[in-house]
Amino acid sequence: MLLLRRQLATAQKYADYALAAVRQNHLGFYRHILKMTKFSEGKTYPGLTSTMFLLGCDYRECIEKIYASTPRLKARGYERMLMDEQYMDIWEHGLPVEY
């Protein structure tokens, strides 16, 4: 959960769009929770046994919808500190502070 929240918070700050190659059994999560749209039909790539689909979304349009439908995905105070260089020395010493 921490990794997903950090990824979403980072994307909200730095990315306009997101793309993901997703296995068929993960389509529901990416489409319903992360509000991504399927851009391609399934394709099997060399070396892989599962079918992959290309999904994407415009973060500027969907990030608030993601947080509204699943509030637990929004980064908490101490998690936002992970991305702020001002607080890096606190994390290097292992003293997380939640506010």
Strand content: 15-25%
Oligomer: single chain
Which parts are unreliable, with pLDDT below 50 for 5 consecutive residues or more? none
Distance between the termini: 18 Å
Beta-strand segment tally: 3
Mean pLDDT: 82
* Total count of helical runs of at least 4 residues: 5
Q: Indicate the overall shape.
A: elongated
Proportion in helices: 40-55%
Strand order of the largest sheet: 1-3-2
What's the order of the H and E elements?
HEHEEHHH
How would a crystallographer describe the biggest sheet?
3 strands, antiparallel
Structural class by SSE content: alpha+beta
Task: Return Rg in Å.
Answer: 16 Å
Q: Keyphrases for this structure?
A:
99 residues; 3-stranded antiparallel β-sheet; 3 strands; 16% strand; alpha+beta
Task: Please provide a written account of the structure.
It contains five helices and three strands; from the N terminus they run αβαββααα. It is an alpha+beta fold. A three-stranded antiparallel beta sheet has the order 1-3-2. The model has no long low-confidence stretch (mean pLDDT 82).
TL;DR?
The chain has helices spanning 2-14, 27-33, 59-69, 77-81, 88-92, and strands at 17-23, 37-38, 52-58. With 99 residues, it is of the alpha+beta class.
